[in-house]
Design goal:
5 strands, binds ligand CA2, alpha/beta, 142 residues, 35% helix
Length: 142
């Protein structure tokens, strides 16, 4: 089982700013990812999207202490840039976590250059669009 967490505003994917985030919806990306995960021999995926910091912390804790979960992929959205609570939650769970950003946060506004959550993760992928989620899953299963 793999957990996929998407943070604030990612439910709007495909509706605005396609030049930055692409034209696919989060549901499109999640369906594409399900096939990619199945191709890697792992059938179970838990998807969570939340606009709320506390709900994301709870999702990390629940997935992170679920013995069936082999790893978590998280796109914390803008919380990556300032949420110590999400960083602490990532640091506190025994399962590996990989952070993903659709856009290259280093090529954007300066306030997006720093991720406070990435330092608690096994690794971080940014700028590769939806492929980043699949590569993150592959790394967690390998
Ligand atoms: O590149 C990413 O994946 C981000 O995590 C996306 C966040 C942003 O705050 C991070 O700096 C980088 C924002 C997601 C907002 O998504 C939207 C999608 C469609 C329309 C408007 C916002």
């Amino acid at each position: 089982m793999i957990g996929i967490i998407n943070g604030p505003n990612l439910n709007l994917l495909g509706k605005r700013e396609p030049e930055i985030y692409g034209s696919e919806s989060l549901e499109d990306i999640n369906n594409w990812l399900l096939d990619r995960v199945a191709a890697l021999g792992e059938s179970g995926v838990i998807f969570v999207q939340s606009n709320s910091e506390g709900e994301i912390v709870t999702a990390i804790q629940e997935m992170g202490y679920n013995p069936a979960v082999r790893g978590i992929v998280i796109n914390p959205g803008a919380y990556a840039h300032y949420s110590i609570a999400i960083r602490d939650a990532i640091a506190s769970v025994p399962v590996p976590v990989v952070e993903v950003h659709l856009s290259n946060i280093h090529a954007r506004e300066e306030f997006r250059h720093r991720s406070v959550t990435a330092g608690a993760c096994r690794g971080m992928i940014c700028g590769l669009g939806k492929l980043g989620y699949a590569l993150a899953v592959e790394s967690l299963l390998s």
